[in-house]
Amino acid sequence: MEQATPRPGAGPAGTGVLAASMRVFDLSLGRMLWSRRTIFTALVAGLPVVVALVLRTLLAFEVPVMQGGVTGPVVFGLMFWGFVVRFAIPVLAVFYGTALIADEVEDRTITYLFTRPIPRASVVLGKYLAYLVCATSVLLPAVVLTWLLLAPIDGALAASFPDLGVDLVIVVVGFVAYGALFAAVGTIFDRPLLFGLLFVFGWENLALALPGQLRRASVAHYLQGLVPHAMPADTPLDVLQRAMTGAPGVLECALGLGLVTVVGLLIAARVVSNREYVLEH
Amino acid sequence: MSLVHDQSYRRYTGARRPIGRAWIVILRTTLGALFARRPLIGLLLLSWVPFLVRTVQIYVVESYPQAVEVLAVSPRTFRDFIDFQGLFAFFVTIYAGSGLIAGDRRVNALQIYLSKPLLRTEYIAGKLGALMVCLALVTLVPAVMLLIMQVLMAGNLALHRAAPGLLPAVLLASMLRIVVPAMVMVALSSLSTSSRYVAVMYAGLLFVSEALYGVVARATGSTRVAWLSLPRNLDVVTDAIFRLPSQHDAPVVLSALVLIAFVVASIVVLERRVRGVEVVA
Amino acid sequence: MAPNTRRFLFGSALVVAAGLCTGLVAYYSGVLPSRQVVRGELAFIPADVAAVAYADVRQIMDSEFRQRLRSALPAAGSEKDRMLEATGIDIERDIDAVVAGLQGDGTPGGIAILRGRFDRSRIEAAALQHGAVEEQYGGYAMLVGRPHTFDDGTSSHRLAPSVAFLGDGLLGLGDADELRRAIDVSVSGESLSAAPDMMRLIDDVSGTGDAWFVARVARMTRQPGLPEQVQNQLAGVEWLAASANIDRSVRGRVRAEARDDRSAEDLRAVVNGAVAAARLFAGQDQRVTAALNSLQASGSGRQVELAFELPPSLLELLEARAAAAMSPGPAAGH
Q1: What is the CA angle A120-A121-A124, rounded to 5?
Q2: A88 and B207 in contact (C-beta within 8 Å)?
Q3: Which candidate in A87, A215, C133, C161 could, as Cys together with A221 as Cys, close a disulfide (CB 3.0–4.6 Å)?
Q4: Scanning every residue of chain B, which has its alpha carbon at the shortest distance from the alpha carbon of A186?
Q5: A46 and chain C: CB distance < 8 Å anywhere?
Q6: Complex ipTM above 0.95?
């Protein structure tokens, strides 16, 4: 009697995708957290805190740094846009997301992972969860600290607290959606980083500044639609984006980000399950 | 019976070139490797689209004098052209530059290179030269070509007579946007063995410094702090080279000093990181 | 999970939790008192009013912006004198805060509840001098003025401007019937606390500025004399809330709640377009540019928000214009 050959991506019976994902998550989290990548993440996340500290120190010495009636909550809003929404979330997602599988291929360790009796999709899912925990555990405290330092300057913690709650949700949701997208990109393309940076700094900036519906083909449209702070307009591109961007509703944002996440993860899992990885010598 | 290779020490039997010319070998092989990548070729071709657009602008202005009101060709046209090419220069710098030294460090090729009759400076010059050639193809060459097109289409040198410093300004501004990013990228590339890490570090340097400038400029209500941002420093110095009024209040000398500091820091990093022997503590 | 990884995650969660707890404590201790301050006044505002407005008069009068505005527009002082002469109330000295309820629907009625330190004998003397009569209603003393016929161009209304002494430091101003109704709703409980939608917005804006305003737009736009173009633009807006913080500068926030997402998108497009156009067509004056740069439109879903700031430098421009307007003709030409 001929025995059926299992597909390369399928795990043995009894090893559920979720259970296996949690094992991969447990294994990957420590490696991911104590890597050079986290140093970069900490630098990116720590800079707003440092800037806020410097501002507080200068104000404590009565140096008139805040001009034109700018208050602490306004500066916090600017920092959230400049450092977090437009840079940290997409770039860290590109950085981690594209490396989920690419790192294993580059280090030639993917073979060892695939020899384990677990579904291949669980490798992607477990590593994706590890990235989420790793990225959010660094950025969320930084956002909270920055808010604690800045919001009381000519403002009130009470008044800006509801916005902080939304900000923290945006950080998590942003990592979820961008991470899933770039996890898929990392499994499809050989040089995913260039594609990721072109998408974030090229396509998304262009799409948001163009009239029509092109902006719906970007993650930034849905993520930036949730931001409670006023969008800064320092450059002509910013002004154009602000004029063109009709902020989508919360439901549209949730649907858009949810769709990107689900589709991204499904593609990543499918590609990893079906692809034959031939390591170059 | 198989052959047994003699693995013992052998003298170098090749022709010995005079010191100072080996960098050409590095340049040639690096360029060969870079131009073998199709995405880079695509990126280089894409970067010539603005040249075509500007050429059409010049044609329209020369053919229909009434269009001068809207599409006038002046030194600012060339300054804006060079500024716009900065976007392509960013992607080319990342794609072509991030792996220049990181790739060699990853496979421990640096020690092999430097065991040959090749000076460290020659190795760096070769790598730097390769990136500068790529950057010249998106900044200097199209800018000079645009100047030539303007003269050919106008059939006179009126623009150059009106602005005698235009050609040197175009050359100098283009070189500025080649040398500074190339030096910074090559230095960053020597800091890591991962080209992805290098690419994200470079993007971080540019965008975080830009976000920092945005926040501080809004808080202080002044653009004097443009020196905080690497791209803004390039803008300030470029405006000065073209003798155009700057959009920023920042002193030109300060911006120039910051750019020089970046170049000096890059040289120091390269001097420390590019060594034949790496001492592991 | 390795112990150091666990420690890191625990530390990270601790920072976030500590920040959120601090925010929560600040939120509940910082916002509630300001709500309680106006609660006494709101008890006299009927639930069916079209708009409610609040101003911390003391804070505004003491602000640097107000001081500079007074020097820029000295004519504003004559209004204060007229009020003093008619009611015996000195706006700058007597009033701490004011809450006003407007009827809308083309009805000119409305009441203002003032909190402050009032000289009852002076107010009574001024009112009686203008022909008012004393009256007791619901346990409160009222000074009911002589009725006047008021014509708004479409219909005429009969109003009797009156004053009611509503308790310690509280004074009601408005039409006699409106004041009687205010006293009724404070007893029956049919005041604003029975209008949850309005209270939701009041809770949002109270405590965010020295002055705020919440309105049911559909009823406000039925006011006679409002241009049709403005009525059309506001047709899709259900609620309007605004607040302003007045100190050295005026920092404000206007929030509109549209009927549906589509109307909100249209309104956002209008606001964004107007802001962009204003920037494009702004003159070279740095002060105007600074004020325009402070305009920040945002919002999502049914919400449209516009934040703005009128910097002190804008007053310099106002002062210069006022000086130019008041200077003799030939000199102004030079």
Answers
A1: 100
A2: no
A3: A215
A4: B196
A5: no
A6: no
